[in-house]
Amino acid sequence: MRITARARINAFLDTNDREEIAADLEPQDILKFRDSKKYKDRITAAQKATNEKDALVVMKGKLNGMPIVVASFEFAFMGGSMASVVGAKFVAAVNSCLENNTPLVCFSTSGGARMQEALLSLMQMAKTSAALAKMSKKGLPYISVLTDPTMGGVSASLAMLGDINVAEPKALIGFAGPRVIEQTVRETLPEGFQRSEFLIEKGAIDMIVDRRLMRDKLFSVLSKLHHQHLAN
């Protein structure tokens, strides 16, 4: 069952000392894009349906008293698609971690790059990856949590770049969808292909964690990783 970005953050972070990061950023229809609808109309409809400005919510807070930054995708906002604002918010999350020496956790659920922003959305793959490289260079922990679904440009960038890549059970994770792959290679794919259990068997992710256990499990992992960073 999918939950909203804020519901996930609320279940993960301590209830006090929270501060939303880059909350004022809103998408712009720079290309004046139109398919069956105008992009600006799609934005307005998504904002009304979700009460969010775009598909990523970033929050600074604490996890069992440990300072941390959490980013969470909102799938109900245009399929959690990554575009300029999502990229900018993710980079703002990384910058907060760099400034305050804190870990980052990102919960991904996305169909991929947002086609209505064309190359501007694809550019976010490189932008977010470059930001994470700075975190890695500084030795700050980044845990990526892949939820159902995590696909396309998000899976091919920030979602698979964690120091630890975690998935929820039975989450669909990949680049192209299984039907597209079957049509291209003209072969029947193995049962469970692109699901979390298939990926961990092939070594593509590090662990599968039930949502109800996520807070305690990630705190345990982060405590070890961040302690090691501080010791160095």
Automatic annotation (TrEMBL):
Keywords: ATP-binding, Cytoplasm, Fatty acid biosynthesis, Fatty acid metabolism, Ligase, Lipid biosynthesis, Lipid metabolism, Nucleotide-binding, Transferase. Pathway: Lipid metabolism; malonyl-CoA biosynthesis; malonyl-CoA from acetyl-CoA: step 1/1. It comes from the Bacteria. Residues 1-232 form the CoA carboxyltransferase N-terminal domain. One of its GO terms (molecular function) is carboxyl- or carbamoyltransferase activity. SUPFAM superfamilies: ClpP/crotonase. It is found in: Cytoplasm. Its main location: cytoplasm. InterPro entries: AcCoA_carboxyl_beta, Acetyl_CoA_COase_Trfase_b_su, ClpP/crotonase-like_dom_sf, COA_CT_N. GO terms for biological process: fatty acid biosynthetic process; malonyl-CoA biosynthetic process. GO terms for cellular component: acetate CoA-transferase complex. It catalyses: N(6)-carboxybiotinyl-L-lysyl-[protein] + acetyl-CoA = N(6)-biotinyl-L-lysyl-[protein] + malonyl-CoA. Its EC number is 2.1.3.15. Transmembrane segments: none annotated. NCBIfam families: accD. Component of the acetyl coenzyme A carboxylase (ACC) complex. Biotin carboxylase (BC) catalyzes the carboxylation of biotin on its carrier protein (BCCP) and then the CO(2) group is transferred by the transcarboxylase to acetyl-CoA to form malonyl-CoA. Acetyl-CoA carboxylase is a heterohexamer composed of biotin carboxyl carrier protein (AccB), biotin carboxylase (AccC) and two subunits each of ACCase subunit alpha (AccA) and ACCase subunit beta (AccD). Belongs to the AccD/PCCB family. This is Acetyl-coenzyme A carboxylase carboxyl transferase subunit beta.
